[in-house]
Write a structure and sequence with these properties.
Elements: H1 9-12, E1 19-22, E2 29-33, H2 42-56, E3 65-69, H3 74-79, H4 101-114, E4 118-125, E5 132-135, H5 150-160, E6 164-167, H6 170-179, H7 186-190, H8 195-201, E7 205-213, H9 219-233, E8 269-274, E9 277-283, E10 291-292, E11 295-296, E12 300-304, E13 313-323, E14 331-335, E15 346-350, E16 353-357
Parallel strand pairs: 2-3, 2-4, 4-7, 5-6, 6-13, 8-12
Antiparallel strand pairs: 1-3, 5-7, 8-9, 10-11, 12-13, 13-14, 15-16
Length: 363
């Protein structure tokens, strides 16, 4: 049975509200989206704060074009649920015959995304935990998700200022299909494509920012700060007073000949990161201890070199792991390069004993 396109009269007359600002000076075209999922309100609140700053004259666009979409899924927002009829951030591609409400939204939103250079998609998550950013693949010419702007995308993720950056969703999703014996064809891969995958396919780049837990009072602040830092990084607007352009600097490196221990307990890999690509790493002793969303897992700890006037800092670079069978829309986190079993929990070994931990569900 097909899903009815209209649940009620309000659904039949829904529209997307876009706020567009265009400077007389040419520059990047930035799109900021909130409310892809109806129960994730922090992006909408962060965008509302930016609009208020424009209205008050506290924010002026110096160059380029800025488009703000406070609520990308009106039906899901009215219900204050994650989805209207399905997940808007899956199967994101235009269709001549939209089969559901989210497909109709996609047909309207996809052309908006396509005419921009940069996308910042604002989300939140259900479990407790700190904010993190999600980026795409490294530069490649493969058939799955060819990409040539990893440096710019990684640089944006770093300047947003989250302590964790998750890379590589679509390639791991495809590997998960293969591991389960499912067909890895275009139709199956399309289910894993969202807004960021779409802008990459159009020649742009994008970062998904998970601003924190749904009800975290700081999540709207994280969303607002990310918008303002993105505008500043792209040279589109000045930073407001009190907001730093760069995240906190990393601790100084150990002197030659001294043992270099990571600041947090745990067995971690430490590397210099150039354009989000590790160049060298060495092992440090210890046992797992870094906490994220109540979990303990081995991770790779990277030092980002000072670049473009931004102080270097440490950031954990994680690999997007496969979807779980129990919750197909829940994404798990894993160390870079790891392919983990497709189960509701993931495992690692510490001192010869296996332990398991649940990971949060970025969107």
């Amino acid at each position: 049975m097909s899903t009815p396109l209209f649940d009620d009269a309000a659904t039949a007359t829904d529209s997307l509200r876009l706020h567009a600002f265009a400077s007389l000076n040419p520059g990047p075209r930035l799109l900021v989206i909130g409310g892809v999922h109806g129960d994730e309100t922090c992006g909408t609140e962060g965008i509302a704060r930016v609009l208020a700053e424009f209205d008050a004259g506290d924010l002026r666009l110096l160059r380029g074009e800025l488009t703000l979409v406070p609520v990308a899924n009106p039906l899901a927002r009215r219900r204050l649920q994650r989805e209207g009829q399905r997940n808007l951030n899956r199967l994101f591609r235009p269709s001549e015959t939209p089969a559901d409400y989210e497909a109709r939204i996609t047909n309207r939103l996809a052309p908006v995304i396509a005419r921009h250079d940069v996308l910042l998609d604002l989300h939140s998550f259900q479990s407790e935990g700190e904010a993190f950013a999600m980026i795409g693949p490294r530069d490649n010419s493969g058939s799955l998700e060819p990409f040539a702007r990893a440096q710019e995308e990684g640089r944006l993720a770093l300047h947003i200022g989250t302590p964790i950056v998750v890379e590589g969703w679509l390639d791991i999703y495809a590997a998960g299909l293969a591991q389960r014996g499912a067909a890895v064809d275009e139709a199956a891969i399309d289910f894993g494509r969202g807004t960021n995958e779409y802008i990459r396919s159009c020649g742009g780049y994008g970062v998904t920012l998970e601003c924190g837990q749904h009800q975290d009072p700081q999540a709207p602040q994280v969303a607002w700060a990310a918008i303002r830092r993105t505008l500043a990084l792209l040279g589109m607007a000045a930073l407001p007073p009190g907001l730093s352009a760069a995240p906190p600097a990393a601790a100084p490196a150990a002197a030659p000949g001294q043992r270099d221990r990571p600041p947090a307990r745990g067995r971690q890999l430490r590397a210099r990161l150039g354009h989000l690509r590790p160049r060298a790493a060495r092992r440090a002793r210890g046992h797992a201890a870094r906490r994220h969303a109540g979990q303990r897992a081995r991770r790779r700890l990277h030092r980002v070199p000072e670049r473009d006037g931004a102080a270097g800092r440490r950031v954990v670079l994680l690999r997007a792991a496969q979807r779980t069978r129990a919750r197909p829309d829940r994404l798990r986190l894993a160390p870079v390069g790891a392919l983990l079993p497709v189960t509701p929990t993931f495992s690692h070994r510490r001192g010869g004993a296996a332990t398991t931990a649940r990971a949060p569900g970025p969107t």
